[in-house]
Amino acid sequence: MRDFKNILVVRTDRMGDVVLTIPAIRALRHKFPCAKISLWVDPSTRELVDGLPFIDEFILENRSAGWWGYLSHIRTLRKKKFDLAVIYHTKKHTNLACFLAGIPYRLGYKNKKYGFLLNHPVKDRRHLGTKHEVEYCMDLLEDIGAKDGDLDLQVTIHKGSEEWADRYFREKKLTDRPVIALHPSASCPTRLWPTKSYAELAQRLIRENDVYIMIVGGADARPAAEAIKKTAGNRVFDLTGETTLSQLTSILKRCQGLVSNDSGPVHVGAAIGIPVISLFLRSQAGINPQRWRPLGKNSVLLQNENGEEILLDAQSHVISGKFDSISVNKVLLRCQTSILGILRMFHFMVEEGPLFFLHEHLHQFGV
């Protein structure tokens, strides 16, 4: 088995994909402790993982510079003299770049996107959705004997973002009651639980559980945020389009939990250990919960009722299913048990002591 010294990992897609690749990068470091490990990522996702001790360098490409920028990027890769490329985002763009950069060992998924340029291709089974994406990422490393290690997720917490989030919570006076984050957006409309359902959920959480609601997401989530605020009132705080990914991480860290569509923030929430309720409307192979569910120990998955899943044709058009199959009542109950229940349990144990807590709750079951 070769002892690689200069490794390039390619993961240029979205935030959730990057976070789910972290265990594999950590496994690479364990297998090749003396190697330099560089990560080619999109500039927008860098701060999520910038500072993790097993990543030495970040490679960024200026996609707005067109073909000249692409050729310049290839020259940069060639000058780095990488001896291994692990290509998770196997697109024509990335496969061609690693080939033209002269990287001698190119490991990735065999597909029709210039997969023939990989000299160590692995059959792509991700579309079957029989494993989690984290496991698929680890499986790719079996070819180089690096498939080893835990599947725990990590993201970087930045001091500047922590200070910003502290200041925001103080200025908005959000420290006197629980804050629940809602993420009503997603990269694909077939993942979207209805905005009116989020609005009713927010309204009932405020009325029945005396909480604040924090709406997070990109600028595309602003219309949904406005509709939620209109329904739920002035205890709703809207940060859509206002945060970097690092600031989003620090905001979520201060929330008691997150309710979200199947989207990147659920993996960030899982990585920092907050309770996450993830709503899955789809269950077809490759886009199913088995592959994309949040992995945190405090994470909960809610799915459409059997027979009401959103089904797509080959062109990703909806052919059947219900977007509102998951009821507001079901999500509210999960918030009350998985998020607020955890919070109440913690306060009870602090105020009364763990032995008293156990005595009181075991007594309910006749123990």
Write the layout of secondary structure elements.
Elements: E1 6-10, H1 15-31, E2 36-40, H2 46-49, E3 57-59, H3 66-80, E4 84-87, H4 92-100, E5 106-110, E6 120-123, H5 133-140, H6 159-171, E7 179-183, H7 195-209, E8 212-215, H8 222-232, E9 236-238, H9 245-254, E10 257-261, H10 264-272, E11 276-280, H11 289-292, E12 299-303, E13 311-312, E14 318-320, H12 328-352, H13 354-363
Parallel strand pairs: 1-2, 1-4, 2-3, 4-5, 5-6, 7-8, 7-10, 8-9, 10-11, 11-12
Antiparallel strand pairs: 13-14
Structure write-up:
The chain has 367 residues and is α/β, with parallel strands linked by helices. The protein has 13 helices and 14 strands. The strands form 3 sheets. A 6-stranded parallel sheet has the order 3-2-1-4-5-6, sandwiched between helices. Strands 9-8-7-10-11-12 form a 6-stranded parallel sheet, with helices on both faces. Helix 1 (15-31) runs parallel beside helix 5 (133-140), helix 6 crosses helix 9 and helix 12 (328-352) crosses helix 13. The radius of gyration is 22 Å and the shape is globular. The model is unreliable at 355-367 (pLDDT under 50).
Nearest-angstrom radius of gyration?
Answer: 22 Å
Helix run count: 13
N-to-C span: 57 Å
Residues in β-strands, percent: 15-25%
Provide a concise account of the structure shown.
It contains 13 helices and 14 strands.
Please give a handful of descriptors for the protein shown:
single chain; six-stranded parallel β-sheet; 13 helices; 16% strand; globular
